[in-house]
């Protein structure tokens, strides 16, 4: 690209631009949480050879936590009422050439981790080939944005219009921690930061959702059922 040139938005950049401006109308707030990932990392190592992706594990953990906190999976469109969504559809942000798209893992709480991983690979391939159908990227009820693979430790995400919350996921990093009995140990920890619509979701809702999510990730046996 020649420096100094003016470049019109692509269709995708135009859509992102409209959504970002629309999201400014929603009063949002953010709550962060640090989660120990040693058990999740060990599980991932064990089942990675069967085609399981870390994205699918995070989506599944998030979906199982949302089952217990339906208000965090709700949405408000008119400012006068809100909807408890009947499905838990986890949208995951994917960087594309010249933009961003959020393929959706439908019913992520109900689909097993192996099928979810296969579905995710299929969605990413379709996204890269620009072949996603609208229902494959517009039906998310909760969004994940993960910059951990770039070594980012924490960030804020912008709430997609028509949804209640989005979770920004940072890198899992070895951390020196003090144990309850006063000893020093090493644990891998990641920071997550949820941005939510404060018209519907309050601080205590997000805090209890994040506690549930941390419990699931720190003892991930339910992820492989």
TrEMBL record:
Q: Which residues form the 2-oxoacid dehydrogenase acyltransferase catalytic domain?
A: 5-223
A molecular function (GO) term: dihydrolipoyllysine-residue acetyltransferase activity
| GO CC annotation | chloroplast envelope; chloroplast thylakoid; pyruvate dehydrogenase complex
Its Gene Ontology biological processes? pyruvate decarboxylation to acetyl-CoA
| Official protein name in the record | 2-oxoacid dehydrogenase acyltransferase catalytic domain-containing protein
Taxonomic source organism = Liquidambar formosana (Formosan gum)
